[in-house]
Amino acid sequence: MGSCLLSVLTGLILMQIQQNSECYKIEVSPHPGTTVVFRRKGGQDLDCTACRGVGSSVTCQNSDLKLDESVLTTVNFNCSQPADVFNVEVTQNIECFETRCKNIAIHPDSTRFLDFTRTFIWDVKVPLSNTVQLDFPAPAIRQIKPSEYCPNNHTYTIISYRAGRTSIGTFCMNGTISRIQVLYRGRVSLEVQKGTDLNPSDFKVSVGPESKMLVEVDSKLPRGESFEDFFTPEYTKGFLRDDQIKWNFAVEPSHNFSVKYLHKTEPECQTGDVSIEYLFEDKSVLTKTLKDDPPANKNGDFSMTLANCQPKTGLALNFEVSVFRGGTPKLCKVDLQNEEGLSLQVEKKNPMSYCEMKMNSLVQEKTVIHVGSKVELSFLDCSAEDLMLMATKTIVLDCPRGPPCDVRSTDLTIPAPVSCLPALHQFTWLLRVPEGSIDLSSLQGNLHQSVPEKECNQVTFLVSEIGGSNIGQFCSDGEGTIQKIQIKGNASITAMPKGAQGLSQEKRPLLKAILNPEFSENVVYSVSPLVMGSTYLPTPNWPDGMMPSTSVTWTVLVPSDYRAEIVFTNVSQPKCASGHTVVKIQSADSHEFQFWTEDQTFPSMVIQQQSFYLNMSNCEPKSGRFAVLSKIILQRETRKFLGIILAVVGILLLLLIVVLIVVCVIRKKKKPRANRSSIFMPRGRSNLPGNATFPKTRADNESHIYASIEDQPVVDVNSGHWGNGHQVDTYRPYTGPTDSIPAVKESSPEYTLDRGDGRSEDQDTYQPFLNPTSTFMPARPRTPLISVSSLRFEDRRMAQNELNTFKSTGDINPIRLSTDESRFQPQLDSDSDSFHEPEYDETQ
């Protein structure tokens, strides 16, 4: 029993010792070709040891612990803070052949050994006559003194092993050195302080060209003013080899450089001298010693080659290459002391351009000239395309003596440009109203809001609520429909040109702002739609959504002869966390309205017969956005228009009827009586004074020959015409047959003749005349039945006859035959005188 208790106590003591010996444990698995060494710091506590393995296979060492097998190994430390005693070195061997290198994945896990100060080492070997080429992409590296530390706790050291170990230099990240070539064999080490995450430069290892230089450094100097330091190898101890070191410098165009020796230690030479050779871009060569002044104020790329002698003592050189802009800058003085509320900002549009801008002798990428300041600017190698000028003017719309006061307005005008400044690309007015709202209108016509369907192609105004969202982009368009915009509270208006001319030529006022009382909506538009075409009404901040819990109203004026068709062409609805989105349409002259919320479907079209209000308000969205694009099309009112047309046509018809009646009355009153001749027709056998029609030519007819005259003819002595209007040449006695003359029926006192060519189907039979009331034309007054022998008888148709037997010597008034009489008119040949067919009246 005692032995058992002794065994238990012994086990507990061994367990306690094992626990004390395992204060810190870490598992390590080296990559192939990689060696991990826990290297003890000099002068540290020897009681802290590093052990490898577990159980009975544990081996402990008081010196360095080296692990080079690619297996998982447990490392135990018998102290709680092994990072104070040990550093970790991770070494990787890279062997390069003529064209490529092996094992180029050189960066280990950044989270390993975080509690230790770590040194990552890459040993690179290339063919004997080649160089190890190390490329450092942006941001590249810069050289420092060996005693300095890098700001990010990442310090690079480059070593050459050609005929001995030579430290090329110590480097930090963010510099100008983009490439280093080391002859034959080189080492790159990166030291990272404990507690710092590994963030190495992503440098590349490759086989470089053949060279006689121990080391060759490529540096790309930055544009603008800069100062870069460079050191010779083994700068602290001195360079003791008779090798050559070369620096290649790339200088930006329009820049000059100067070389300055900051510190130098000339060696004691056994043979030869120290020389420095400068090769410039124009292929010229300049050779100097360390006692000579280096080149200054040169331009273009150059190289500097330092050749050491066979020294007894070391050579050390620290030199500086400074770069500055060449050429003569353009000076510009800007004084804003007399410009109330105006500030300017000048910035480079292209950061890669060679333009250098200074304000008060300080190089700046962006220059801000504050309100009321006076500065001096300079521009070097700056074209109009390199710079952009923006201006901001703050205007306070307020009652100077407090409310109530008259409405205050201001014209938004661009101040006269400063000649030495670039073209103005943007001008912003900050309108501030302590109380009230802003009415914004154009001085050059109505405003048009730019939408994808119809964009602005001239000066554009970006209107925004200060502290809110953009309302929209507007322009003064010839087809603009917005008479004014009312904005609740402060507003920002930014003018931007179309094209590269800028705003400097805009000298007249562009907009007008008026202070008005405050209203409930955020934005109110006064719209006069286009008569021809479509008028688009986008919500504020289109196509993005309206701000939460905001509203907008359009006051739309519809002409009296039109109706408005409202179409919602594009609608985006959110999911509301609280409240609802509402679209409301209300007539201007009534309280009737229609409205829709986010859970309702919009109609395809809404028709308004008169002016109306269109109001939209947003909720507090949970997701999504509220954005609506509306379109208004005006159409003429067809009913009203038809009524107007019918009324006008009716009035015209009524006027036409009245005119016709008046013309008929006047015509009847003033109508000249037709030329008439009275023919006495006795009872019994009588003969009509001719057929109803005549042949076309007198040469073929005997219309001018009469067989006999039973009664005394009535002739006009002046004209030589018979009373029936026929022309008379000479009298010849009738020699033709007389038996064919039909007898005149005495049953009816009226006779008719057929119309046409004067030949009826029974052309030898006489028919009575139709009563004038049975013809197409209305009845006309009949010829008075007055005896031809009466002194009161007047036959006006005989006025042209030469054998005129009228008793009266008064003026004869010829009367044109009426339409009814013309049907009896004979057809004459072309050389005969035209005459009217006589009207035969009943005689006693």
From TrEMBL:
The protein's name in its UniProt record: CUB domain-containing protein 1
Transmembrane feature ranges: 641-666
Positions of the CDCP1 first CUB domain: 25-96
Domain CDCP1 second and fifth CUB: 105-208, 416-496
Compositional bias per record (Polar residues), positions renumbered to this chain: 802-811
Ranges for region Disordered: 720-764, 802-844
Organism, as annotated: Triplophysa tibetana
Extent of Basic and acidic residues compositional bias: 752-762
Keywords: Membrane, Signal, Transmembrane, Transmembrane helix
Signal peptide positions on this chain: 1-23
Domain CDCP1 third and sixth CUB: 221-314, 520-632
InterPro entries (UniProt xref): CDCP1 (IPR038811), CDCP1_CUB_3rd_6th (IPR056266), CUB_CDCP1_1st (IPR056268), CUB_CDCP1_2nd_5th (IPR056269), Sperma_CUB_dom_sf (IPR035914)
Keyword Transport: no
UniProt-listed PANTHER family: CUB DOMAIN-CONTAINING PROTEIN 1
